[in-house]
Amino acid sequence: MNYGKLIAAIAMTTGLTGQAMAQDIFDRSESEFFVGGGYGQYSVKWDDEETEFDEKSEVVKIFGGIKLNEYLGAEVAYLNFDEANDFDTNAEIDGFTFAGILSAPIHERASVYVKGGWFTWNAEVKADLPVLGGVSEDMDGGDWFYGAGVKVGLLENLDLRLEYERFEIEDDIEPKLDVASASLQFAF
Predict the structure, then answer these.
(1) Within 10 Å of residue 6's Cβ, how many Cβ atoms?
(2) Where are the domains of the chain?
(3) % pLDDT > 70, the chain
(4) pTM higher than 0.85
């Protein structure tokens, strides 16, 4: 048996298969732009204390992005969190996310996805101190975030997204924000 020819045949087959897979993943004919908005609730964990999801802890989100193909995409979003409380400290946080999205189709009209990226945030922190009274400070920063979700097609260009995201703000206010949200996404 000629092992050189066998290795060359395997390499050629693997190379063609790898090239076909790469071409399928980066096929621009399936690319589309999308916009959307959603509503959710969040819980806050300050060090060892945690607040529960409730109707007073709301977040509104507006987003847009590009789906390169059925596997890869990118998204920019604006999030506005209602006031988060920790007894004598309150924080109002909003910001922008910049994320990459990796999707896996599970049905013709449904897919699961993971996403991750950077959260650029602004916060106004207010504290009621016994001696000084109310003190306020504006803060800003950036931190990594990640999430996962499911997207279900409702109409040809309209999808419902259900997702969970985790934001870990590593500044003096140090909360971990867990967000559960539902959004509508329109593709064009």
Answers:
(1) 10
(2) 1-30, 31-187
(3) 70
(4) no
CATH of 31-187, one of 3.40.228.10, 2.60.40.10, 2.40.160.20, 3.20.20.450: 2.40.160.20
Centroid of chain to Cα 49 = 24
Query: 10 Å Cβ neighbour count for 39?
Result: 12
- C-alpha–C-alpha distance, residues 70 and 105, integer Å: 7
pLDDT, tens digit, for every residue of 97-123?
999 999 999 998 999 999 999 999 988
CA dihedral (150, 32, 23, 152) in degrees, to 10, reads 20
Q: Give which of 188, 106, 187, 96 is closest to 150, Cα–Cα.
A: 106
Q: Which two tokens stand for residue 106?
A: 């599970």
Cα 164 to Cα 89, 134, 148, 161: the distances in Å are 26, 34, 6, 10
Tell me the pLDDT tens digit for each residue of 3-36: 566 666 655 655 555 555 445 444 445 789 999 9
Residue 10: enclosing H or E segment and its boundaries? helix 3-25
